[in-house]
Design brief:
This protein is α+β, with helices and mostly antiparallel strands.
Length: 326
Amino acid sequence: MGGWAIAVHGGAGVDPNLPQQRQEEAKQLLTRCLNLGISALRSNLSAIDVVELVVRELETDPLFNSGRGSALTAKGTAEMEASIMDGHGRRCGAVSGLTTVKNPVSLARLVMDKSPHSYLAFSGAEEFARQQGVEVVDNEYFITEENVGMLKLAKEANAIVFDYRVPAVGLETCGAVAESPIMMNGLPISVYAPETVGCVVVDSQGRCAAATSTGGLMNKMSGRIGDSPMIGAGTYACNICGVSCTGEGEAIIRGTLAREVAAVMEYKGLGLQEAVDFVIKERLDEGKAGLIAVSNKGEVACGFNTTGMFRGSASEDGFMEVGIWD
């Protein structure tokens, strides 16, 4: 074992014209979350506890697309989803269609720990949340003025915004009227800016865990479920590695992206970064996505085929890095 390691992400597909202030705010949030995780790991918290702790912090801050600040459905409401997986025993929990649960990742953890199931959704998930006594809030808590504006722009453009926000200033340069629009299931998407959040951790005992949380697509159909709550697609952890994905959910689902990293490590004998690079290149077809990963050896890796990805990573040997671009 090579000691603990941690990585966080705030989404792939960053607008190249993102204002410098927004870039700095994102880096500060990622750094704060990394330091939170590092402190917990130094206090000997388990990997599964650390990924929940860090993703809760990301859900509480409105900067990225999860929890407060989630993308809005075509109806103007927030419908959130999350998943968590403990590589030790491959235990997992997932939730979708949440409208009042303040921290979706913690409800996913309760599904894993306190229910006989792996996945609960919509009214059943909300009912389970109340049975478990988790904190609930009005849906308005998750809605920000900025996202209301983004939904208006998306409706005017008759577009699904993938996943989240592009600054309203300079929208004409952000792909809203792209010459070669990104396609999803054969349909053009005129704005691409996903900012799902996730965290992967390997602790000092070599146990891996992963968690992912999102509000999904701006202007999505009510009831749409993406990759983030799907075990093996957006999130996966086993005794070899932990993976959290972000980006074009439909492509991630088709490629079972997170599980593929573990599979090529196990069956092809690839190292962590080799596996990440292989999966990004060979399993997305024409989809756009990114991912973060850790191995049971204390390695940390990331990969993406988008313009950028909000990300940060650290390890017990003193390495720490926060970045957006290549």
